[in-house]
Amino acid sequence: MNSLGVLMKKEYSQVLRDFKVIWLPLVFVFLGATQPIMTYYLPVILEVLGGTQGISIDPTMIEQTGGQVLAATLGSQFDQLGIMIIVIAMMGLIQSDKSSGMLAFILTRPVTVSSYIGGKLVFNYLLVSVSVGIGYFISLLYIHFLFTSVELSQLIGALLCYLVWVLFSVSFITMLSAVLNSQALIAIVGIITLLICRMLVGLHPMLDAVNPAGMSQHAMNLLISGSIGANLSINLLVTIIWVLLTVIITHYWILQKKFHES
Amino acid sequence: MLTISNLKKQYSNKNILNGVELKIEKGEILGFVGANGAGKTTTLNSITGILNPDEGTIMINGLTASDDLEYKKQFFFIPDTVNVFKNVSGYDWISFMLKLYDQEQTEKLSYFVEQFSMEKAIHKPMGTYSYGMLHKMALIAAFTIEPPIIIMDEPLNGLDPRAVMTFKDCVKNYVKEGGTVFFSTHLLDIAEKICSTVAILKDGKIILHEDIQKVMGEENTLESIFMERQRE
């Protein structure tokens, strides 16, 4: 087994012991189920809680298509609470190794900086992707029973687009975890930056093309309209460049031993 | 085996290493001594790649840090504080170390676990280990992996007298089989019994590197030699 494999196995045992492998998918299951249930039962819930006097509910709300509700799951649940949860789950990836001295200890073994970062990034991205995927399909399950079904090609395509945005989020937090020394600072900078990226979507087509959160918008558009946005390929390419840039900065930072002298 | 030439390192405009020159031959057991702040840990951290030196070259068996993996395979480093995953058992931690060095578990591992009396503790989480037990685990890993050179920063700290005896035996056997040992210590009485050579670091420079018997002669102790050199 090469060092990347060994380090990924180590990451696996670490998340198993931290129960991250259990609570992260559970959070996304909850987020995934919330949107269709709330959308469908909101009028009933309000009625039970004392009537709807003074509150006007859009009568077409429960007539939404499955694609629209699934898009709302991505845009309202995963892109807000979901992103915050990802940041909190990932903020200690490298920072905790730095503060405990484990990073220096591991890097004096026959391990390259690339394998170390690769092990962290690949395993944790897989964990987040599986969690998002499970939440997405739980949402789909409720949508199937409460609303209309979604075309298979659309839901797979949308998930793949969304996972590119998730890849950027994970690599960005990994970079912050290498560069910054305080978990609180990593969380604040991470959450604010990613939420700003998400809020900027739709302001200008040029901005959308270079904004990694544009991939989330493409996923939603695909679910709502069934068509792919014009600048998807440019946005995909730029997001991959952003991801590579975060990995290069992480690599450079660790290689320059800035973890030790900071 | 290990050659250090003109090694320099500065921290906050203070020179810690002022051109360290050291050559360690295969089969040597070198005790690296010096006062607090002399630069011993900085030297060891520079050799193992934790620090980037400002100047100078370090070579192990003709390889430099730029050879990355091949260079790192030449040594096993035991730092002063052994960092572990607290909820991982000693056994899993050693298995992880062995895999990083492309090695499988062998009878050697069981042998060293027994030698250091860690049979009962090895399956417990390392978070429950004492400082000395963590050092024992690192020593077990080092002797099982058997790299060309074992580099240690204060390896005797926290070890009980029996473990010190075991350490002594293991070092001698390891060197007999072709290994080299380089360790820093403040325990000069133990160092003079284990080491074949001694190097004294003062103000970031090696002021003595000699055969230990030759330097002590018949009347001196390593402690008296060290004190004499510190006063000069």
Automatic annotation (TrEMBL), chain A:
Q: Does Transmembrane count among this protein's keywords? A: yes
Membrane-crossing ranges are: 21-42, 125-147, 159-179, 185-207, 228-254
Keywords (alphabetical) are: Membrane, Transmembrane, Transmembrane helix
Protein name (Swiss-Prot/TrEMBL): ABC transporter permease
Q: Which organism is it from?
A: Viridibacillus soli
UniProtKB/TrEMBL annotation, chain B:
Entry's Gene Ontology molecular function annotations: ATP binding
Domain (ABC transporter): residue spans on this chain: 2-228
Going by the UniProt record, its keywords in alphabetical order are: ATP-binding, Nucleotide-binding, Transport
Q: Which InterPro entries is this protein grouped with?
A: AAA+_ATPase, ABC_transporter-like_ATP-bd, ABC_Transporter_VariousFunc, P-loop_NTPase
Species for this entry = Viridibacillus soli
- Fetch the PANTHER family from UniProt: ABC TRANSPORTER ATP-BINDING PROTEIN ALBC-RELATED
Q: Which residues form a coiled coil?
A: none
Q: List the protein's name.
A: ABC transporter ATP-binding protein
Q: Does the keyword Cell cycle apply?
A: no
Look up keyword Cell cycle and say if it applies. Answer: no
Under SMART domains, the record lists: AAA
An example of a Pfam family matching this protein is: ABC_tran
